[in-house]
Amino acid sequence: MARAQEASISVSVEPRINDRIRVPEIRLVGAAGEQIGIVAIGDALRRAQEADLDLVEVAPDARPPVCKLMDYGKFKYESAQKAREARRNQVLTVIKEMKLRPKIDPHDYETKKGHVVRFLTAGDKVKVTIMFRGREQSRPELGFRLLQRLAQDVADLGVIESAPKQDGRNMIMVLAPHKQAKARPTAAPAAAADQR
What we know:
Helices cover 43% and strands 27% of the residues. The chain is of the alpha/beta class. The strands form two sheets. It has a four-stranded mixed sheet with strand order 2-1-4-3. Strands 5-6-8-7 form a four-stranded mixed sheet. The termini are far apart.
């Protein structure tokens, strides 16, 4: 039984082509996208051979299934190129974490705030966590005020994406960079190149 499940997971979902299409008739679409109509599978295969193309099932759930005349190797190559280009252009969202205590020293606060500013400038989201210990747990308003102060100090770089909320012994808030903050790092190298 486990082997049958493994086989079903590893099966790729490639469309059926040429002789693998096992229905008596199909709706045929030509190589240029023109509608040919409903034809017998033998006639469609003959047309594909005459045009030196493949018969590819593009809509198997339709009644009758829709098939298209195309160069399947070229189609697979172009779709792989498009997928690779989409992955290259994908923006990866990184969440950095900054941990604070409610009774933080002013100098330590400035240091941590500097890290948050650096992360937001780089276009990363920042998860700010206030950790409460012992009696501090009975004073959550201290943590809330500290998070509000930090959000106001970095308001020109980021916005509150997730409002401060208590999570057990911690209070969590998520800051996200402004939209133009993401565009700034890519424009900076171009501007530096112009100054040379």
